[in-house]
């Protein structure tokens, strides 16, 4: 089981090296410069290009998708800092009945795979649920529903 982050800001999909090693993924290695925000350039000596199948955990109430997707990713020692799992916003639950009703305990989550633009649209399903103009949007994926947008109500005097 690995946590994935859908990231439209990444051109390529990435996998943490320890996850690739655990899965015994093999592939050619080469040196590469990774570019990031604010002109950041990092030279990494041994970037491995690996291929694997990414499949969702079977779940009740989800439309059955094919057997996941074939993903080609670059293996890097570190992808991003741990993220905080965010509970489903309370104001989404009534508008999007397909969302899970169980609460997520806010906790740090380690990301093992970043799904970049090279594979982003392969994981999207057909469903989109919208609330009001300033509410988040729920999007169906092969992993279930994800919520994009603001996760907390903004007050008028808060920036």
From TrEMBL:
One of its GO terms (molecular function) is aspartic-type endopeptidase activity. InterPro entries: Aspartic_peptidase_AS, Peptidase_aspartic_dom_sf. This is Peptidase A2 domain-containing protein. It comes from the Eukaryota. The lineage of its organism: Eukaryota, Metazoa, Ecdysozoa, Nematoda, Enoplea. GO terms for biological process: proteolysis.
């Amino acid at each position: 089981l690995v946590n994935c982050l859908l990231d439209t800001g990444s051109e390529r999909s990435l996998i943490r090296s320890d996850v690739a090693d655990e899965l015994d993924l093999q592939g050619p290695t080469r040196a590469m410069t990774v570019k990031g925000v604010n002109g950041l350039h990092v030279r990494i000596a041994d970037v491995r290009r690996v291929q694997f199948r990414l499949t969702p955990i079977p779940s009740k109430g989800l439309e059955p998708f094919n057997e996941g997707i074939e993903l080609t990713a670059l293996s890097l020692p570190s992808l991003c800092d741990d993220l905080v799992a965010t509970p489903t916003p309370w104001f989404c639950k009534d508008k999007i009945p397909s969302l899970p009703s169980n609460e997520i305990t806010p906790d740090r989550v380690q990301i093992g795979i970043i799904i970049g633009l090279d594979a982003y649209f392969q994981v999207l399903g057909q469903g989109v649920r919208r609330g009001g103009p300033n509410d988040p949007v729920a999007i169906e994926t092969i992993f279930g529903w994800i919520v994009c947008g603001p996760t907390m109500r903004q007050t008028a005097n808060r920036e």
